Amino acid sequence: MADLATRKLPLAGRHGGSSTVRLTPAAPASRISLRAPADSVHGLSQALGLQLPTRPKTSAGANGRHALWLGPDEWLVIDENGAELVGVAASSGVLHSATDVSHRNTAVIVSGPGAEATLAAGCPQDVSLSAFPVGACSRTLLGKAEVVILRLDEETFRVEVWRSFSDYAFGLLAEGAEDAGL
User: pTM score, two decimals?
Assistant: First the structure.
């Protein structure tokens, strides 16, 4: 039997932070980039087991699955349990496009009382609790890298980044965490 290639996690073994923030590579997850017209939202929501959000900067989550609104007909769906999301979306029987981006992306969990300050060190978007409440999400920039930020709770963010930019993003977050800890 032939050996199979094993994909190394891009941030394996990396940890960082300061006295006020922790940086942790997120566990592997499955992801799809989902595009669909408005009349397909109901069927896709039923198949995915959560209501696809239809308002800017909003998300929905259930049982380790998150759907992040990225545009009027675009979502990033993340499943922390590794479900085969393309097949799940296909079971909806409605018009859509689902592209597996599981190996394109990785994520960093930024948590602690200094999480907002850590993100602010490299992100132009206001991620304060009043402007970016729990459940808010947005495609934005972190330094020169495009990221998608999801606020999981008052002190925790999930920063989705393409794996090719993950070292850069982690390094920038680590510098921000050091500053936040001062």
Answer: 0.92
